[in-house]
Design a protein that fits this description.
Elements: E1 7-8, E2 23-26, E3 29-35, H1 38-45, H2 51-64, E4 65-66, H3 71-81, H4 88-99, H5 106-114, H6 118-131, H7 138-146, H8 163-176, H9 183-192, H10 209-223, H11 232-243, H12 251-263, H13 277-291, H14 298-303, H15 310-313, H16 318-331, H17 340-345, H18 349-357, H19 364-388, H20 395-413, H21 418-426
Parallel strand pairs: 1-4
Antiparallel strand pairs: 2-3
Helix pairs in contact: 2-4, 4-6, 6-8, 7-8, 8-10, 9-10, 10-13, 11-13, 13-16, 16-19, 18-19, 19-20, 20-21
Length: 427
């Protein structure tokens, strides 16, 4: 980030792909670095261990260059140096190119989408959606739809699209229609958060339900960013995603199930009648936080409140409580304060009391439950402070976050009790 747009581009010079060298220090002599054999690591891990590092290196290279003002010169240089099917560095470069608001010709986008390079597909979709955020460009909208089976018409033939490409297409759709999403797209994204994967007869690709759900939640939040309103039916659906309930298959799911019945493969249907909140809750928190950010809507904030007893706490994942605190704090924006007192006020009374009273030697399970909840609640509050005061240079925010960093680090590396550390760190 310190060298963004600092390197002058040379039109006659090609894109130089830097190489990555991996070195490691071994305990106890960390200063003695040893170069690792990448080929051996790839063989050991069953894949390229440098694929994504090379991708990120490509992003940094794109951000570093200073491009000519003429769009025609940019386009000709890009066409000469970036292939439709390149390596991870080229894909990363395409993403970084889009993050700098540079547009790629639509015939070139079509060439990339027709290739077999999934990383390049994801890079061009996300990068160009960010470059044209909020424009609802028809050509790019059609390109995204090609990678989203959820938007295929009912009569369309089944096409296998990798899960990671679908996830990026969802997020890209949100950026392309940022703040101006149609009711059709909003309703589709709200349903896709709770989608079950029903593989077709020929679909053997792995499907990550958690990634797909979170991607749909991010897309929904970005599409309705700061609108402070949601259709009552979709709001009820969000509450089901958080608290649980029964689900109704989406149109895409119904189409796949119908095709499986016709083909005699109904035994492949693995859907469930109940909502898996461990999958859907994070996506719902993210979407609600983005939609109602800075609204100070007490009704929405109350729907995101923390468990009020140890019984309900047992059914809440600690990482979900972090997201719940963060989303509730972003909704109640004006209440965020860079103070120790505000951070401590986030924990329900039974957790604050349990931290002082419950001893690990008396009840290890209960102690760990309360302890983990306390940590994640504080972490969510710290994230909210960081977001609100980002770039402000606030001394109080810096001080409280520094203290909390030492607090978490001390609890991870020392054998001190939680009560001792929290008292010394928070006061």
């Amino acid at each position: 980030m310190l060298t963004v747009s600092r390197a002058q581009i040379t039109l006659a010079k090609g894109f130089e792909v830097p190489q990555i060298e991996i070195s490691a220090g071994f305990y106890p002599q960390f200063n003695a670095l040893r170069k690792l054999d990448v080929a051996s690591l790839d063989l050991l891990m069953g894949g390229s261990c440098t694929q994504w590092p090379q991708f990120h290196l490509g992003v940094s290279m794109a951000l570093k260059l200073q491009y000519p003002a003429s769009r025609s010169s940019q386009g000709s240089w890009f066409a000469q140096n970036i292939p439709s099917e390149g390596g991870p560095q080229h894909a990363g470069f395409v993403l970084g190119y889009g993050l700098l608001k540079h547009e790629i010709a639509h015939n070139r986008i079509a060439q990339i989408l027709q290739s077999h390079d999934d990383q390049m597909k994801m890079a061009v979709l996300l990068g160009q959606s960010v470059a044209q955020a909020g424009s609802a460009h028809i050509g790019l909208d059609r390109a995204i739809k090609v990678c989203l089976p959820a938007l295929y018409p009912e009569t369309a033939s089944e096409i296998t699209v990798p899960c990671d490409v679908q996830c990026v297409a969802l997020v890209s759709l949100g950026f392309l229609h940022m703040r101006y999403g149609s009711h059709k797209y909003v309703d589709m994204l709200a349903k896709e958060i709770g989608r079950d994967h029903h593989p077709s007869v020929h679909d053997t690709t792995p499907f990550n339900k958690e990634a797909y759900s979170v991607s749909a939640g991010i897309s929904l939040g970005v599409m309705c960013l700061g609108s402070h309103k949601m259709d009552p039916q979709n709001l009820d659906r969000m509450m089901k995603y958080i608290h649980g309930g029964t689900k109704t298959p989406t149109l895409a799911e119904q189409r796949v199930i119908s095709n499986q019945v016709k083909a005699g493969n109904i035994n492949r249907y693995k859907g469930q009648d109940s909502i898996d909140i461990s999958v859907t809750a994070p996506a719902a928190y993210i979407s609600l936080a983005l939609i109602y950010m800075k609204s100070n809507n007490i009704d929405i904030a109350n729907r995101l409140r923390l468990p009020d007893s140890e019984i309900t706490l047992e059914y809440s994942r600690p990482d979900n409580m972090l997201l719940r605190v963060l989303s509730r704090s972003l909704v109640m924006w004006d209440q965020i304060q860079p103070t120790d007192a505000w951070l401590q006020s986030l924990s329900p009374d039974f957790i604050a009391t349990g931290i002082e009273q419950v001893k690990p030697e008396e009840n290890v399970g209960r102690y760990d439950t309360i302890r983990h909840a306390f940590f994640y609640i504080l972490a969510g509050g710290c994230a909210a402070i960081g977001i609100k005061f980002a770039g402000s240079g606030s001394r109080s925010a810096k001080q409280v976050l520094t203290v909390m960093f030492d607090f978490f680090l001390d609890n991870m590396t020392s054998g001190k009790s939680l009560i001792t550390v929290s008292c010394t760190a928070m006061n």
